[in-house]
Amino acid sequence: MSPRNAPRRYRYRPGPRGRGSSNRRRQRRGPNTRSDQSASLAATAVGPPAGGDIEIPSKITVQNLANLLQVSPSRVITALIMSGVLATINQTVSYEESAPVAEELGFTPKLQEEPSEELTVSPTERAADQEPSRMIDRPPAVTILGHVDHGKTSLLDRIRRTNVMEGEAGGITQHIGAYQVESDGRKITFLDTPGHEAFTAMRARGAMATDIAVLVVAADDGVQAQTLEAIDHARAAQVPIVVAINKIDRRDANPDIVKQQLAEAGLVVEDYGGDIVSAQVSAMTGTGVDELLEMILLVADLSELQADPTGYAYGTVIEAKVDRARGVAATLLVQSGTLNVGDTVSVGASVGRVRAMFDDRGKRIKSAGPSTPVEILGISEQPIPGDKFQAFADEKSARASTAQLASKSATSADTADAMSLSEFSAQTGAQGVRDLNVVLKTDVQGSLEPIQSSITDVSTDDVRVRVIRASAGAIVEPDVLLAKASNAMIVGFRTSVEPGANNAAELNRVEIRLYDVIYRIIEDLQAAAEGLIEPVSREVIDGHVEVRQLFRVGRTRTVAGCFVTDGLVLRSCGIRVFRDRKKVFEGKLASLKRFKDDVRRVEAGYECGIAIEGYNDILEGDIFEVFHNETGSGSVDESARV
Ligand code: GDP
After folding, report:
1. Over the range 96-106, which residues count as b (16 or more CB within 10 Å of their CB) and which as e?
2. How confident is residue 419, by pLDDT bands cut at 50, 70 and 90?
C-alpha cells in the first residue's frame, strides 16, 4: 500500500467503561461473547441482517468494504476506530484490518484469493489479447474541445440535428450525454460534454472513452488560452486531433491566421505541409459539417479502431442522473462486447441488473454493441462519469469482481496517484526509460521557455523529463486534473495555487512544488532522476484571506482588516502576500486579532486583524495565503517553496 493511502494508526486507549483491546479481542470470538457495546453497534445496523461467510480482498477501500458488508461507510469507519485504525472513506485497508470489522458485524471473513484474470482484466488489457478473428471495426468516440464561445456546443447541436440516423430524422433526441450520428453509412459517437475539463476528469479516473478530439477554433478569434490548453490535454492523452475551424460564415473569419497560429502551437495542418486534418465549418449554417465528419472517419480509419462484439460488455460511465420515477439512469459507452437487457452489471461500486435500456433517441433497445452509448436503468447507486462498468454471467461473480477491481484499482496504474518527486526518486533502478512528467506553471510568459528547456535537459539515458504542459498563471484545477491523468507533478515558479487547485491536489494526491529560483527546480529534478532525493518538508496551505481595510498603528505599522475566505489562519503561520495574482512578499505573521483580542486561530467566514513581520506595504484587495511546514515523506501535497 502506498504510504499516501495508508490509514493513520493510533494507540487505542481504554476508556472509562473498559473498552480495552482485550475486551475487543473477546468480542471477536463470536456473536455470543459480544459485549454490550458491539451488540448496540449491531442494533444500529442499516440494511439486511449481517452474517455468513464473506470473502474480502487483501486490500479494499473503506467505501467498498462498506458495500461488501452492506452497511454504511460510517459504520465501517467506527468499527475500524474500535480496532485502532483511523481511516477515511477513500482510504485502503488491508485484510488484517478489515477482517475484524467483518467479524464485528457478524460475518465470518475469509481472505479472497488473488483476482482471477477473467474477472479483473481491464478493457485495455482485454483488448490486447482478444481473438483477432472476432474483432470488427467500431465507430470512433469523439470529444469536442476548444476555447469558450468558439462554438463547441453549437457544433454538437448542429451535428446532432442534421445527422440523425436515417429514418429517424425528426425523432426526439434525448440528452443522455452522448449520441451517435451516421455519415456516409458509417457511425460516429459524440460525447456530449465538450471541453477538456470533463475529458481530463474522466481520464484522471483511469477511463479512456475518447478516440478522437475535435479541436474547435473560431475563425474570427483564433487560437486562445483554452485552445492551447485543449491541445496539451489531447496530446497528453495521446488522442489524435482533428481541427474544426468554426464560424467560417463570419465576415471577419480568417482561417489562414488560425492555421498559422496552430502551426506556432505545434499543430501543422495538411495544407501547410503537416499531418493534422482540418475542416472549415459553420455550426450556424451547417457549411462544412459533412466534410468534418468525413475527416473524423478518415482519422478513425488510420487509428484502426476495433472491438470484439461477442462476450460480456464493458465500458465507461459517461453520465448518470437520478430521477424520482425511474431511479438511477446511467449513460454507458459500451467499448467492447454487447450489453443486453437482463445482464448483471457492475457499475462503479455497485451491482445491478439492466432492467431497461434506451438509445440516444429515447427508444427502448434490447442490446448494444461496441461504441454505442446507451442509457440503462436498474442500478441502485449513482455512478460517477469515468467509472467503469462490466457485465457478468451472474450476480456472485459481479460482486466478487467489484470488490476485486476496487482493491486492484487502489494500487493499479489505471487509477494510480500522480507521481511525487520522492516516489519517482525511490523507483530509480526500475527497468527501461521512465518518464518524469511535469506540468509547469510560471509567473510570466517570459520565464516559460528557459525553464522548460532547462527542465527537459535534465533527461538522462534512463529518465526522460517531459513537460506536458507549460503556461503562465496561477496553478488551477485543470492543471491538477491533467497532472493526475498523466501521472505528473506540478512545478510552479513564482506563482500561486488557487484554492480550488489546492483542494483538488489534496484529493487527487498530486504533488505541487513551488519554487522561487530556477536552479533549485533543476537540482531537485536531477536528484529525482538520479534517485537521490530526500523526503521533503511538506508545506500545508491553511487558508486564504482578503484584505478589506487598512489601519495604521503608530507611525509605520499597518494592520490589515481581513476576511478569511477559506481554511483558517493560525497565529504561528507563514504568510504570502499576493497582489493581482503575483506574489509580492513572503514572511511571517506578526499578530492575529479578533477585535481587540489576540487569538490563536480564525476560521473561514470571520474577520480578523493581521500584521506581518517586517512588511507594512499592504494594500486593500491583497490576498494573503497562510501556510505552515511539516516534515515527512509521502505526503498528500508536498508543496515546498524553495
Ligand atoms: P462554446 O462555449 O464553445 O460551447 O460556444 P457556443 O456553441 O455556446 O457558441 C458561442 C457563440 O458563438 C454563440 O452565440 C453561438 O451562436 C455562436 N456561434 C457558434 N458557432 C457559430 C458559427 O458557426 N457562426 C456564427 N456566426 N456564430 C456561431
Report:
1. ebbbbbbbbbb
2. low
Q: Reply yes or no on whether the pLDDT at 627 is more than 80.
A: yes
What is the percentage of the chain residues whose pLDDT exceeds 90?
A: 31
The C-alpha angle 195, 199, 200, rounded to 5 degrees, equals 115
Residue 571 beta carbon below 6 angstroms from any ligand 1 atom: no
Cβ(492) – ligand 1 distance below 6 Å? no
Residue 218 CA to ligand 1 centre (angstroms): 8
By C-alpha distance, which of 148, 147, 194, 151 is closest to 283? 151
What's the 3-state SS for 568-607? EEECCCEEEEEECCEEEEEEEEEEEEECCEECCEEECCCE
Question: Which H or E run contains 160?
Answer: helix 152-162
Q: What is the distance in A from the centroid of ligand 1 to the CA of 150?
A: 6
Cβ 226 under 6 angstroms from ligand 1:
no
Q: Give the per-residue pLDDT at 140.
A: 96
Asked if residues 54 and 109 have their Cβ atoms less than 8 Å apart, the reply is yes
Q: How far apart are CA 373 and CA 389, in angstroms?
A: 13
In this structure, the residue with its CA closest to atom 11 of ligand 1 is: 149
Measured in Å, residue 233 CA sits from the centre of ligand 1 at 22
Q: Could you read off the pLDDT of 531-576 as tens digits, one per residue?
A: 655 444 567 788 899 999 998 888 788 999 999 988 889 887 889 9
Non-local CB neighbours of 145 within 8 Å, separated by 6+ positions: 152, 194, 195, 196, 199, 213, 214, 215, 216, 230, 233, 234
Instruction: Identify the CA nearest to 261 among candidates 204, 317, 206, 222.
Output: 222
| Ligand 1: centre distance to CA 282 (Å) | 9
pTM: 0.60
Q: CB neighbours (10 Å) of residue 192?
A: 22
Phi-psi region of 605 (alpha: psi -120 to 50; beta: other; left: phi over 0): left
Closest CA to 305 of 121, 184, 127: 127
Rg (alpha carbons) of the chain, rounded to whole number: 28
Q: Among 63, 84, 83, which Cα is nearest to 73's?
A: 63
Distance (Å, whole) CA 476 – CA 467? 17
How long a stretch of residues is the chain?
Answer: 642
Q: Is the distance from the beta carbon of residue 158 to the nearest atom of ligand 1 less than 6 Å?
A: no
CA dist., res. 314 & res. 392, Å (int): 9
Distance 149 CA to ligand 1 centre (A): 6
Give the count of beta carbons closer than 10 Å to the beta carbon of residue 384: 14
Q: Mind listing the pLDDT tens digit for each residue in 34-84?
A: 333 333 333 233 333 346 788 787 777 777 787 778 777 778 888 887 777
Looking at the CA of residue 147, tell me the nearest atom of ligand 1. Answer: 3
The reported pLDDT for the residue numbered 525 is 85
Q: Would you say 570 and 578 are in contact if contact means Cβ atoms under 8 Å apart?
A: no
In eight-state DSSP terms, residue 414 is: G
